[in-house]
Design brief:
single chain; 134 residues; alpha/beta; globular
């Protein structure tokens, strides 16, 4: 009985991390999951600096530098329960930005990781859509 309980608990714990990658921050979502959640209506926030954004953005994302989130989140009309995904260059500032949002009462916030990985995935998905449209 004890072994079965442990096994069930271990499986449940493991399922919590489906869609997350192995990295320094184990709670960074895989680009595919980010893409799917955005397609389902999640808000995508870019917490990089305006200078970094000059290199490009993920379509549909909103720029709110991570050190301005607390002051500027009110500019965005979003409910506290709405899914919010936060990305930066690598995922580190996104983690800080997500923590700030959680501290402000937003309950469905995830770290979407780094721009380059997301851009690569978005590019592949866009190429796939173009091929399907022909």
């Amino acid at each position: 009985m004890r072994g079965t309980t442990f096994l069930i608990a271990a499986c449940a714990f493991g399922l919590m991390f489906v869609g997350f990658r192995a990295s320094a921050d184990p709670f960074i979502l895989e680009p595919q999951l980010v893409y799917e959640r955005v397609a389902e209506g999640a808000l995508l926030i870019d917490v990089r600096t305006p200078h970094e954004v000059e290199s490009g953005v993920i379509p549909g994302s909103i720029l709110v530098p991570y050190d301005e989130i607390e002051e500027r989140i009110g500019e965005i009309s979003v409910e506290k329960m709405h899914a919010i995904l936060v990305y930066c260059a690598s995922g580190r500032r996104a983690s800080k930005g997500a923590a700030t949002l959680r501290g402000l009462g937003f309950v469905n916030v995830s770290n979407a990781g780094g721009y380059d990985e997301l851009k690569e995935y978005w590019g592949e998905k866009d190429k796939s859509k173009d091929r399907q449209a022909r």
